[in-house]
Amino acid sequence: MPASPAGSPILFSLEHGLAHLTFNRPASLNAMDFAMGALWRDLGEWVASDPAVKAVLLDATGPAFCAGGDVIAMGSAGADGGAVDGADVTAMAGVIHAGIRAIVESAVPVVAAVQGAVAGGGLGLMLTADWIVAADTATFASKYANIGLSPDLGVSTLLPEAIGQRRALQLVLQDVTIDAATALDWGLVTEVVPRADVAARARAVADGWLSGAAEAYGEAKRLLRTGAHRTFGENLADEAATIGALFDTDEARTRVAGFAATSRSRRG
Q1: Contact yes or no for 53/19 (Cβ under 8 A)
Q2: Residue 267 scores a pLDDT above 90
């Protein structure tokens, strides 16, 4: 996929195996309207299917990471320019969900650099990432019930998977905002750093994957992210097939041989 044009609602590029996706509607707190949602779906399917993509860095411009769906746009005009109704909202959610599913189920590890506020469906978009670096000033909230709506964008599944059902319910059943320290304690994010260091730290995580056994990292991510939704037997069969396929790669053969040689010398 070519690099994005200036002004795209999601900036994107691919360099040395790293797909860099940047939410780019800062004036709207990076909330997704119909056009941004369709682009997110296309980008999700791209990074999941292009063998040139080895890792993904997800970040955002402006003061907020993502406020979920664009409620202002929902209250004005639909994709066809007419008044928005429930069918429009369902269709829009389905489009965004396709991108979320593609990324979560892919064999590509994703790191998110969360520099600001996350709310509503932004929680689900953030949780598509496997590693989340948050600024110490970032905040996290549900806000669905404030406008009479229910969770979407994967929140009903990804949020309890990350922090447990009780804490997920605590977030969605009351008007509460948690800070970065609480998000770290709950397991909502992986690490918290000063805001000035968020971009560099997230890039370092991605670079670590790319400089290592990138394919193995990707398959490990896929097994863990999809395993909870299959039977134990299906997971075992997938594990066996995956480790066998990786063993036959040049990358694994070189690393296994090196490990074996080192182990023999230590025993010797």
Answers
A1: yes
A2: no
